[in-house]
Design a protein that fits this description.
Blueprint: H1 2-10, E1 16-19, H2 26-32, E2 36-39, E3 53-55, H3 72-80, E4 84-86, H4 87-96, E5 100-105, H5 110-123, E6 129-131, E7 143-144, E8 150-154, E9 159-161, E10 164-167, E11 176-179, H6 193-205, E12 212-216, H7 220-227, E13 233-237, E14 244-249, E15 252-257, E16 260-266, H8 272-286, H9 292-299, E17 310-315, E18 322-327, H10 332-346, E19 352-356, H11 361-365, H12 372-376, E20 381-385, H13 393-396, E21 404-407, H14 410-420, E22 426-430, H15 438-448
Helix pairs in contact: 1-2, 5-8, 5-9, 6-7, 8-9, 14-15
């Protein structure tokens, strides 16, 4: 929604927005664009008299325990019969119409892969528009209209709005669709993996016959999606036998097209997951005329996305500095691959302290709590913020023994980490929220200690 606001502002509209507890980097980006942020969903905002209200999917018809509406502004909009639409619908009608849309879908890697594709197209002079669910460091903003024919968009499978329960991505009608991976997630709206696969097939149905679908060849779930029916050209990536594959380590590898080396990537990113993201980005750029060699050259200057293994600071100690990182990982698979990527970077001799917050709706429900020991096993120590959960984090992590600790508050969690940290450690903080500003608190506490 922040990216939509930025696009509307760039298009010349006056834009305001309301939410609860907006946090960086989006809050800072919006204010820098001159977009007023209003805390809460008060009815007094009707006085702004906008042409239209663009409604995000956080808004619902829910009521609080005292019977009052959780979103009184929405109730007032409905009562007054005022015009409103969903974010994806507004985007489809006002921005995407008539452009070559490259949509990136998947349980993991959407933000990074979308940012990669946008940077490849920018580097090669195609001046794309884009909407990314984060802030790509190469651009400094999460969205722009662009003057070229292409628009690159992060295509989320989460539902559109309280009045439109389809996945967001069915609105985008891409000509190039990237299916990065597919696992069970969003347990608050999907009953099982099959339900998500059905939504992905709805996306496949919208790709024109002259379009192209790029699919991760390692994913059985995506094979099932395409087996439901496909009416477009398909290219695969990732598997040993696929159109696009890689040979070498994730930070320096050859790109192979149908077994023949066509490019080389050497960059600062780590992890097999980013290697797969790169293959997807190179394949997608190829559909709009960018050669693999040009795309690979662009990726060498790709700076990643804020909150993707972002180094927030270091504290110098005798014997080596302690580094504190921020990462958006919140699904067990993402946590595991993020830790693995950092392990490949720092080597087996350095300690990794994983500090995480089960904050997503799926994690709060406890649907994936049994996977936590598995996803954290690559870390030397694990620290979990267990407050406000409907399940017992102590019990879920009991199998890790002394390697895992749980705290019910951020301050207590910081205390646990500080008590265990030592010179040359790498502290990896993972959450899809602001995490109580734990990164700054850790750095401050380390300096004091």
């Amino acid at each position: 929604m922040g990216g939509l606001a930025a696009l509307a502002r760039e298009a010349g509209h006056k834009v305001t927005g309301c939410d609860a507890a907006v946090y960086p980097p989006m809050s800072e980006q919006l204010r820098s664009l001159g977009i007023e942020l209003i805390e809460g969903f008060g009815v007094d905002q009707l006085a702004l008299n906008p042409d239209i209200f663009v409604v995000g999917n956080v808004v619902s018809r829910a009521h609080l325990a005292d019977g009052s509406a959780k979103f009184p502004l929405m109730e007032a909009i409905l009562d007054a019969g005022l015009p409103y639409t969903s974010g994806p619908q507004w985007l489809a009608e006002q921005v995407l119409q008539g452009r070559h849309v490259i949509a990136v879908a998947g349980t993991h890697g959407k933000t990074t892969t979308t940012a990669m594709i946008a940077w490849i197209l920018e580097y090669t002079g195609l001046q794309p528009g884009f909407l990314v669910g984060g802030v790509p460091l190469n651009f400094g903003v999460s969205a722009r209209l662009g003057s070229g024919a292409t628009f690159v968009i992060e295509a989320d499978e989460y539902d559109t709005a309280f009045f439109d329960k389809r996945s967001k991505f069915v609105h985008y009608r891409p000509r190039t669709a990237v299916l990065n991976n597919l696992e069970f997630d969003h347990a608050d709206i999907f009953d099982n993996l099959g339900a998500i696969e059905r939504q992905f097939h709805h996306l496949v149905r919208t790709v024109p016959p002259s379009g192209r679908i790029l699919v991760n060849g390692l994913e059985e779930s995506l094979a099932r999606v395409l087996h439901m029916g496909c009416w477009s050209e398909v290219r695969s990536f990732g598997a040993a036998i696929s159109d696009f594959s890689a040979a070498g380590e994730p930070d320096a590898f050859d790109v192979l097209y149908q077994g023949r080396t066509v490019a080389k990537v050497k960059w600062a990113l780590t992890g097999v997951h980013n290697q797969l993201n790169a293959l997807a980005a190179i394949a997608a750029a190829g559909h709009v005329g960018v050669s693999p060699a040009e795309a690979a050259k662009a990726l060498q200057s790709f700076e990643n996305v804020k909150r993707r293994m972002e180094l927030r600071g270091t504290v110098a100690l005798q014997g080596g500095s302690i580094a504190v990182y921020d990462d958006f990982a919140h699904h067990p698979t993402a946590i595991r691959t993020t830790i693995d990527g950092l392990r490949r970077k720092v080597g087996p001799g350095s300690r990794i302290l994983a500090v995480f917050e089960p904050r997503s709706n799926t994690m709060k429900l406890g649907t994936m709590k049994a996977q936590l020991p598995w996803c954290l096993e690559g870390a030397d120590l694990a620290f979990c913020h267990g407050g406000a959960l409907g399940w017992d984090a102590h019990e879920a992590l009991a199998g890790m023994g002394a390697k895992a600790q749980v705290a019910d508050s951020i301050d207590a969690l910081v205390g646990q980490v500080i008590a265990q940290a030592r010179a040359a450690d790498h502290i990896l903080c993972m959450s899809n929220g602001g995490f109580g500003d734990i990164h700054r608190k850790l750095l401050k506490a380390l300096e004091q200690a």
